[in-house]
Amino acid sequence: MKSLPQSCEDCFKEYQAALEDLNNFAHRADFAKLTDSQSRELIMSFEVTHELALKVIQKYFEKQGKGPFSGSRDATIEAFHADLIDDGKVWLDMVIDRIQYNPVYPIDTQGKFLENIQKRYIPALGKFEETIDKILN
């Protein structure tokens, strides 16, 4: 049996739940003393939240008759132009940091990535939630 495609509103609810989980984890975490396991968990929570944000953007544009996009960077740029996000640089940095952070390779980007998640990305994801909530309601 085939399942129905998710609506923008359904994707947004999933995004809100993931953002709440990310915020809860970040608020109780001591970023200066994260274990490797906690660091990986925080990064994974961020990545899930970011993916869901991109899914909301995709569904929003599908509803508008736009897209598909060739990747997260193109969707991010279009979202900036449509005023869904207000700081395109931060959102593009999210994409770049996710590409650069790869625990398989020896380049140590985890510390900077965790700092960006805490200080730049979580606030930007929160602003995105507020913007989409206003648009959908």
UniProtKB/TrEMBL annotation:
Keywords: Transferase
Molecular function terms, GO-annotated: transferase activity
Keyword Transferase part of the UniProt annotation: yes
One Pfam match: NTase_sub_bind
Superkingdom classification of source: Bacteria
Protein name (record): Nucleotidyltransferase substrate binding protein, HI0074 family
InterPro entries in the cross-refs: HepT
